[in-house]
Amino acid sequence: MPPSPSNSEAATVASAARAWRSPEYWLYGTWALLAAGLLLYSQTLSFTEDEGFHLLAAQLIKGGMRPYLDFCFPQTPLNAYWNAFLMRVGGESWRGPHALAALETCAAAILAAQFVLSRLPERSWRVAGALAVALMIGCNTNVVEFGTLGQAYGICLFTSVCAFRLAVAAVGKSGGWLPFASGIFVGAAAASSLLSAGVAPVLLVWIFCFSHAGGRWNKALFFTTGAAIPFLPVFYLALQSPDVVWFNVVKYHVIFREVYWPEPLTHDLKILTGWLSDSQALLMGLLAVFGAFYISKRSTWSSHQRAEFYLCGWMALAIGAELAIAHPTFSRYFCLLVPFAAILALPGLYALGDRVMGPGKPFWPVFFVSLICIASLARDLCIDRSDSNRWQEYEAATRKLLQVTPPGKQFFAEEQMYFLSKRRPPSGMEFSYSHELKLSAIQLAKLHITSIETQKRELTDGTFASAATCSSDLVEDYALNKIFHQKEDMRGCTVYWDWQPPAPGESNR
C-alpha cells in the first residue's frame, strides 16, 4: 500500500491547483504568450521594405557618420541611435532591433493592461478586462506587423504608454520627478518619430489641469524640460547645419512626401475610411465610443476615475488627428493609438457585457472579443505575408551579390542589401525615396542626395559592377536587364552582373 502524502505535500498540491484556477494565472500566462509570439514573429516573418533605410542609418551612425550632416535621413534620430547602440553590443544584424522592438511592443500592451488591472472601478472585471486589453493590443495586425520592426513603432508604443502611466501618477503627488520622467518618455517617443508628437500636448494639459498636489506650473516646467532632453542630438546637429536639419526633420514631410503619390488625397481618403472593412479597428472603435458614453452617462465612477479614462480617449484622438493630416498617411501609422483606444474600449465592453450577460460575468464577452482579435490577426497575417519578401530573401541575394562583385568595385542595390553587406553605400544612396526630389544640384549635394538621372548615368557608364533588387519596378525603371548581361533570379530577388558598355549609337536607358 503506497504511503499517503504528508500534510505539507497535500498543501503544496492544493496550492498549485488553486494557482492553476486563479484568473491572475491566466492573465500572466497570456502576457507571456504574447511576448513569445511577438518575439517569434519578429525573428521570422517581420519585414517591410521601408525598414531598410532605418537599419542602414543605424549602421552608418555606428560607423561614425552623422544623420542629416553626412547622409539624408528624414526622421527624428533617437530610434536610429538606439539601434546603433544595439548593433555595437550585439552585432550588425536586423535580429537585435527586431527582438527589442517586439519586447517594447509587448511591454506597451502589458502596461496598458496593468492600468486596467489597477484602475478599473468594476473590480469583478479587472483581471478579465486586463486580459482583453492585452489581446486587443497584442493581436492587432498593425501592431504585430510594424511593432516588431527596426522602425520606430515599437519604441513609440512603449514610451507613449510609459509617459501616460507616469502622467496619471504625477497629478496626485507633489514634486517634479514624475512629470519630468513623463516628459522624458513623451520626448523619446517624438524624438523617435514625430508621428507620436500628438501625445505631448495632451499630457501637458492633463498634468497642468488635473494636478491636485504640488505646483501646477512647476510640474508643467518639469514635464517640458524632460520632453526636450531626447531632442538634444537634433539640437546639436542643428547648430552645425540648421537648414539641412530643418529639411530632414520638417521640410521634407511638409512639402516633399507627396512626390511619390500622384493622387495623395484619394490615397488618404482610402486609408482614412479603411477602418470600415477592418474588423479589429471597427470593433475597437465602436467599443471605445460605447465606453465614452458609458463613463459619461451610466457609470457611478468618481470624477478622477472618469478623467483617467477620458485621457485615453483624448490621446487616441490627438494621435489620430495628427496621423490623419500626415500627407500621405498610411494605415500602419494608426497602430500608435491602439493602446489608448483599447483601454477606452474596455468600459464599452463592460457596459455591453453587463447588459447582456449580467453583472460580474466577464468571461463570455472577453472570450468573444479575444477570439475575434486572434482570428482576425491569423487571417490578416496569412493574406498579407503570402506574397511578400522576407529578410531571408534579401540575405540570399546579398550573398550572391557579394560573390559576383569584383573586389573594390561598387554595386547598385536597395538599402537592405547595403545594410546586410556591411558596406557603406555610395554617398546619396542611403535613402532611396530621396532620388525623385526635384532640387538644384547644389541643394542635392548639400543634402547628400543623388538624383535618378545621375544614378541611371552611372549605371550606364559602368560605375556599378553589379546590381541587385527585389523590386520589379526598379528593374524596369533602371533597365537593369539591358545594362548587365548576366543575372540570377533567386527567391523573389534578382542579382545582375557582367556590365558591358552599350554599342556605339545605342543606349542602355
Radius of gyration: 26 Å
Overall domain count: 2
Q: What structural category characterises the helix and strand content? A: mainly alpha
Distance between the termini: 91 Å
Major β-sheet strand ordering: 1-2-4-3
The strand count comes to 4
3D architecture notes:
The protein is mainly alpha-helical. The chain has 24 helices and four strands. It has helices at residues 7-21, 23-44, 51-62, 78-90, 95-119, 126-138, 141-146, 153-170, 177-192, 199-210, 216-228, 232-240, 242-256, 264-272, 279-298, 303-324, 338-356, 363-384, 391-404, 415-421, 441-447, 452-461, 472-477, 480-483; strands at 410-412, 464-469, 484-490, 493-499. The longest helix is centred in the first third of the chain and has 25 residues, at 95-119. The protein is globular, with a radius of gyration of 26 Å. Residues 16-20 have low confidence and may be disordered.
Structural topology:
Elements: H1 7-21, H2 23-44, H3 51-62, H4 78-90, H5 95-119, H6 126-138, H7 141-146, H8 153-170, H9 177-192, H10 199-210, H11 216-228, H12 232-240, H13 242-256, H14 264-272, H15 279-298, H16 303-324, H17 338-356, H18 363-384, H19 391-404, E1 410-412, H20 415-421, H21 441-447, H22 452-461, E2 464-469, H23 472-477, H24 480-483, E3 484-490, E4 493-499
Parallel strand pairs: 1-2
Antiparallel strand pairs: 2-4, 3-4
